[in-house]
């Protein structure tokens, strides 16, 4: 084998093990197609398939079409169980989306769990990501939160199961989230590509993903899935935009914002509050997962 070919094969092997080790943090085995799409190295599918065959069973194991770290056969059962849990949660989220899309300016409603809508734990809540028209972010959030409050669907400590968590709103005139990335932010890239649309007006999700060109540089084999291209257009009758006086809704929400969020507001990328982004993650766990990932990778190479 030529030196250049050997080096490339070695790099691809490391990239595949790193990828599988990262998803192992979430008890999530990967199919061949997912490995190829999520890989940070450009490669042909058959090239990846050949390397996987070489890595099994020395570094990896495989079962029912899924690949995982040595000995982690339980992950296949966990993935299948979570898929079944998630189906009922998605049906609930779809019903909720019919109401949320009536809020002023809502263009996109998507489930935003890190590894996609169909990897939800039985006890988990449902994270929702919303994109709005320019100048409607505060009014959209006000009415979305109000709807969930009236229906009793807001999560509370110890009562998260099947609740709707409205923690991320974005204005359509500021779609590039590159500035929110941390250094070596592997978590964020997979959060982005696993957004699962419930309502997608005028291909808003496609526009959002295409705007974030850095994503395609980090995932050269990945493409926007056809399932994300929702052809729905107008959301139907909405709350009148005459109610959407942004300054008024902004003032109310800032007044009632929790002390924890106020303290962390605009200190880093965890809690970002302005007229284009409302990112309200009081516990942004990306650094935590990055540290766990580094340890997992080190252990994986010593398997």
Commentary on this structure:
The chain is 45% helix and 14% strand. With 303 residues, the protein is an alpha+beta fold. The chain has two domains: 3-72, Arc Repressor Mutant, subunit A, CATH 1.10.10; 88-283, no CATH class. The longest helix is centred in the first third of the chain and has 27 residues, at 74-100. The chain is elongated, with a radius of gyration of 21 Å.
Number of domains: 2
Cα separation of the termini = 25 Å
- Trace the largest sheet across and list its strands: 7-4-5-6-9-8
Helicity level: 40-55%
Helix and strand composition category = alpha+beta
Provide a short characterization of the protein structure:
The chain has helices at about 5-25, 30-40, 45-55, 75-100, 135-150, 185-195, 205-210, 215-220, 245-255, 260-265, 285-300; strands at about 30, 60-65, 65-70, 105-110, 125-130, 165-170, 195-200, 270-275, 275-280. The protein is of the alpha+beta class and about 300 residues long. It is elongated and about 65 Å long.
């Amino acid at each position: 084998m030529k030196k250049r070919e050997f080096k490339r094969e070695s790099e691809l092997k490391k990239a595949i093990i790193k990828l599988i080790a990262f998803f192992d943090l979430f008890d999530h085995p990967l199919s061949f197609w997912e490995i190829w799409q999520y890989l940070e190295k450009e490669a042909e599918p058959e090239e990846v398939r050949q390397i996987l065959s070489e890595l099994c069973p020395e570094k990896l194991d495989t079962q029912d079409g899924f690949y995982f770290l040595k000995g982690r056969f339980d992950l296949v059962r966990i993935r299948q169980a979570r898929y079944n849990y998630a189906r009922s949660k998605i049906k609930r989220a779809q019903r909720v989306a019919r109401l949320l899309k009536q809020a002023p300016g809502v263009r996109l409603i998507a489930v935003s769990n890190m590894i996609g809508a169909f990897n939800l734990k039985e006890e988990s809540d449902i994270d929702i990501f919303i994109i709005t028209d320019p100048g409607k972010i505060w009014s959209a959030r006000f009415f979305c939160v109000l709807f969930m409050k009236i229906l009793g669907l807001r999560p509370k400590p110890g009562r998260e199961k099947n609740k709707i968590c409205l923690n991320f709103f974005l204005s359509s005139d500021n779609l590039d989230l590159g500035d929110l990335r941390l250094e070596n932010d592997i978590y964020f890239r997979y959060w982005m590509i696993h957004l699962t649309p419930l309502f997608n007006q005028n291909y808003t999700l496609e526009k959002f993903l295409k705007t974030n060109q850095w994503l395609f540089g980090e995932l050269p084999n990945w493409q926007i899935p056809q399932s994300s291209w929702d052809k729905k257009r107008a959301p139907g009758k909405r709350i009148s935009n005459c109610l959407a006086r942004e300054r008024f809704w902004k003032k109310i929400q800032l007044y009632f914002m929790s002390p924890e969020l106020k303290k962390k507001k605009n200190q880093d990328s965890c809690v970002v509050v302005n007229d284009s982004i409302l990112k309200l993650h009081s516990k942004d766990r990306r650094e935590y997962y990055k540290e766990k990932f580094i340890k997992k990778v080190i252990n994986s190479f010593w398997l």
